[in-house]
Automatic annotation (TrEMBL):
This is Beta-lactamase-related domain-containing protein. Residues 42-330 form the Beta-lactamase-related domain. It comes from the Bacteria. Pfam families: Beta-lactamase (PF00144).
Length: 347
């Protein structure tokens, strides 16, 4: 164990010398809990609030999978079952044919819808505006902006997957429609209360604390933006509570974990996100490919966030990695860190 800790510390200290990283926290534990090790940098601690960003998709996926177990929805359901035709009309038109009414919940969960991300792909300036200009955007506005962009492919086209936040924004709205409740209340009922998470929440008004996030050397406060992407990236947590959640997600405490075998399909995401694949609401990162010069073993399962957050399980060593590097300028940073950690302690 001490040898593992030394390897972890060496990777972490080398990584946090990166000029883009101003603060960071890392927590590593095994399933049994008899191994726990944390490292801190720049004043960030295991109980410091973290903007989890796209790790939120794991929370949304959890709710979808629980509702599926309760037989309140099916992944084969067309989203047309839950929305008015006016809402969906022209959402997905590819090569002159409309697929809007054919999209399924599965297409959204696996990112196989082909839909485009309005912020990331809308224009070269769209992402920068989202960072520098904090503004609220409603669900209807998100849908309208998505309709203005061309989809990448027809739904379920080959083995293609394209990561787009709008997929989970729609899933969040479906959760609210099915439960006749707010997303924050469903999170609380299905996840936060059962796991005893006291410092994990979806901010809903100006009184709810939202951490600052770095873009290069500047620290930004973007609470309106965060409240606009609740189901795809709006959750706040801590490293300590993310560890509880990620263990529960893959350990069967929230839903039957046989679902990972039942829904075992995963597809490679767009080239910009290589080597990440996407399964039923979670990322899968193989460690044995070209990116590691075939020296890795196994795979990482979980999610990273564009703000530098990460929550992954490494089955080959039975270890969970959670934490944050708090940097939006390079979304690959958290993935690179966890890959290096896994490679350094591979069994």
């Amino acid at each position: 164990m001490e040898n593992q800790k030394q390897k972890i510390k060496k990777v972490f200290e080398k990584f946090t010398k990166n000029k883009q990283i101003h603060e960071s926290v890392l927590l590593i534990e095994n399933s049994g809990g008899d191994f726990s090790y944390h490292l801190e940098y720049g004043g960030k601690k295991t109980d410091t609030p973290i903007l989890t960003a796209s790790i939120t998709k794991l929370f949304t996926s959890t709710c979808i999978l629980i509702l599926r177990e309760q037989e309140k929805l099916s992944l084969d359901d067309k989203i047309a079952k839950y929305f008015e035709e006016d809402t969906l009309s022209s959402l997905h038109i590819y090569k002159g044919r409309e697929y809007s009414m054919d999209l399924t919940l599965s297409n959204l969960l696996f990112h196989t819808s082909g839909l485009t991300d309005a912020i990331e792909e809308g224009s070269n300036k769209a992402k920068k505006r989202a960072i520098y200009k904090d503004r609220q955007m409603s669900f209807d506005e998100t849908i309208t902006k998505t309709k203005q962009l061309k989809p990448h492919f027809e739904p379920d086209m080959g083995k293609r997957a394209h990561y787009a936040n709008v997929n989970f924004d729609i899933l969040g709205k479906v959760i609210e429609i099915v439960t006749n409740s707010t997303l924050e209340d469903v999170y609380k009922q299905f996840i936060f209360d059962p796991l005893g998470l006291k410092n994990t929440y979806l901010p809903i008004d100006e009184d709810d604390f939202v951490p600052n996030v770095y873009y290069k050397d500047t620290s930004f406060y973007i609470p309106k933006t965060i409240r606009s992407i609740r189901a795809s990236g709006g959750c706040i947590s801590t490293a300590r509570e993310l560890m509880i959640f990620i263990k529960a997600f893959f350990g069967g405490r929230l839903f039957n974990k046989t679902i990972f075998h039942e829904l075992g399909v995963n597809n490679k995401l767009q080239a910009a996100m290589s080597p990440i694949h996407y399964g039923a609401g979670y990322m899968k990162i193989p460690l044995g490919g070209l990116v590691t010069l075939f020296m890795g073993k196994g795979e990482l399962l979980g999610h990273s966030g564009s703000t530098g957050s990460f929550a992954f399980y490494y089955p080959a060593s039975d270890l969970f990695f959670v934490g944050d590097v708090n940097q939006m300028a390079n979304p690959a940073l958290p993935v690179r860190l966890v890959m290096r950690l896994a490679m350094s302690i591979r069994s």
